[in-house]
Write a structure and sequence with these properties.
The N and C termini lie close together (about 10 Å). It is globular, with a radius of gyration of 17 Å. It has one domain: P-loop containing nucleotide triphosphate hydrolases (Rossmann fold, 3-Layer(aba) Sandwich). It is built from six helices and seven strands; from the N terminus they run αββαββαβαβαβα. By secondary structure, it is an alpha/beta fold.
Length: about 230
């Protein structure tokens, strides 16, 4: 940033030293997502992936955790990412960009028991191959439903991310449906969980696609990761 504005902390909000740096990150996030975001391409196989350019941040989570709703809330586009009432509908990697060099990647959901076993294995195989082999993947936003306890599939994916050496940040979704006391306990739980994983980011984000809570902070985190 020019004109004497404070430099953006590369580590995002958790490294902001004062309110000025925090406000600079929030403003950078606002500007980043004031751009028109568009769907770029989809990939169902590794050989369908676009060229590894810019910086990619992937969104992962259990089926129906709210990835599409969060993507729409981030970008201000009501139907940029299709919202489905059918868990397990997203079966590919979907790439979105605003031409800033930052790409958001909507990953297939995991943990949907009714999906055919072969399809589930294919999604998870694609996920891991993408995670461990994508040189410009900077972070995974691992979404967790604030209303639901941590599932074995969530911890399995965290272990997978540790193994792939891909930094991940936990994001609680659907927090508008949780009372403050219960939400505080859930947040403390997942913060403790993040600390037990080498790849876990210390800052847990608390969001609601319905009310907009936490969206500015999430945009700020993504702005810190975007190419200069």
């Amino acid at each position: 940033m020019s004109g004497g504005a404070p430099a953006l902390p590369a580590g995002g909000l958790s490294e902001a030293r004062d309110e000025a740096e925090r406000e600079a990150l929030i403003e950078a996030g606002r500007l980043l997502f004031a751009r028109p975001w568009d769907f770029i391409t989809a990939a169902q196989r590794l050989d369908h992936l676009p060229a590894a350019e810019g910086v990619e941040v992937a969104l992962a989570g259990r089926s129906n955790v709210g990835k599409s709703s969060l993507m729409n809330a981030l970008t201000g586009r009501r139907s940029l990412a299709r919202v489905s009432n059918t868990p397990g509908r997203t079966q590919q990697l979907n790439f979105f960009s605003a031409g800033s060099g930052l790409f958001l990647v909507d990953m297939p959901g995991y943990g949907f028991a009714r999906a055919a076993k072969a399809v589930k294995e294919d999604w998870q195989g694609l996920m891991f191959d993408y995670l461990r082999g994508r040189p410009n993947l900077r972070r995974v936003l691992l979404l967790m439903d604030a209303r639901v306890e941590t599932k074995p599939s969530d911890t399995a994916v965290m272990e997978l991310l540790d193994k792939a050496a891909v930094p991940f940040q936990l994001v609680l979704t659907k927090t508008d449906s949780v009372k403050p006391g219960a939400l505080a306990r859930r947040r403390a739980e997942v913060e403790g969980l993040a600390r037990t994983h080498p790849a876990g980011h210390p800052l847990v984000l608390v969001t609601s696609s319905e009310t907009g809570a936490g969206i500015a902070e999430l945009r700020a985190e993504l702005a810190a990761l975007a190419p200069a």
